[in-house]
Amino acid sequence: MSTSRDSGALAVNAFLPSINLTSTELETLSGPLDLKYALLWWSSLLLGVAEEFAPVGKMSLLHPCLVENQLASLRLAYYGCIRCLKKAKLDANQTDQTAPGSTNTPADGSWILYLIYIAQNSTPPIETWIPITFLPNGEIDTSRTAANDLFRANIILQPLTTLIHTLVDPNFEVWRLINWIFVSFYWLILHDLGQITPTTYTYSAYRIIGDPIGVPNASLPAIYHPPSNNIFINDSLYQIFSSYMRDTLAPLGKISVPEFKSLNNMNQLEPIETRFLRSYTCLMRQWKGVLSALVSVLAADYALFFGAYSAFILIAGWFQKRKLEHCKV
């Protein structure tokens, strides 16, 4: 999620489960709902929240933070690995102790979200990265998030916090909303790819120039994470995130979300086979129109004839020149 003085818009991209029901049909479903219908509600509301952050043709909700803090750009970003070139991310006042190349995923006991900004008068433009670590239950991990980092991040997001507190609820927690968005996108994207848990790789110190992600170290084995922190498998986390969606987010849009069934062995995500569809230009032989065919033939004949004619003139001129020189001798 980002904003800048050039764009002023928030960009959100994600793969989501296909919604085969209309919004009216979805609202007529009575609870408690199985997970497959809960996912339809979940993805629908997630898109709705994302659209509130990024309304078409309007400024991002992050834009006041950009203006009041005199920033050239501002974004919230998640990366699957800790950036390999630490000095490109952290300044001297930051205390991110994670090793370069470490994996970063909500499937672990904690994960890191970065608040990244460029000061308006920075010459040359230098990004500052502030790491905020979250626990699986959506709360900030204060044992891994430096107090100074959290303070600076709160100062930057204060205009957004003030706006939401004024328009929505003075007790509304902005960081919990941000966590809900990122974690929901993470597990829904993984589900759309047929997986219930990620497979990660340790990254080497080598990094492609211009790419914030390092190159996987192929000499080390892959890391298979357990699904215990998947919010659609762990019922405790499922209740936390679904209750937040139902009791906090849905009322903002005056939407009534039905109750969801608890997760169990018969009502949870399972890995499924998925296929990638690749489109390509199809070539089909067919007769051209008369005029088009005539032009194509004449153009080809012209090129062949005058190419051969030019070669003949060149060779003939060379022989004639040799002949004249021989006669003079």
Structure write-up:
This protein has 329 residues and is α+β, with helices and mostly antiparallel strands. The chain has one domain. It is 38% helix and 12% strand. The strands form 3 sheets. Strands 1-2-3-4 form a 4-stranded antiparallel beta sheet. Strand 6 (203-207) and strand 7 (214-216) form a beta hairpin. The protein is elongated, with a radius of gyration of 30 Å. Mean pLDDT is 79; it is low at 6-19 and 84-100.
Summarize the structure.
With 329 residues, the chain is α+β, with helices and mostly antiparallel strands. It has seven helices and eight strands. It has one domain.
The percentage helix is 25-40%
Gyration radius from CA atoms, angstroms: 30 Å
What is the H/E order?
Answer: EHHHEEEHHEEEEHH
Mean pLDDT: 79
Strand order of the largest sheet: 1-2-3-4
Gross geometry: elongated
What class would the helix/strand composition place it in?
alpha+beta
Total helix count?
Answer: 7
- Contiguous low-pLDDT stretches (5 residues minimum) are 6-19, 84-100
Main beta sheet: 4 strands, antiparallel
Strand-residue fraction? 5-15%
Number of beta-strand segments: 8
Distance between the termini: 85 Å
Total domain count: 1
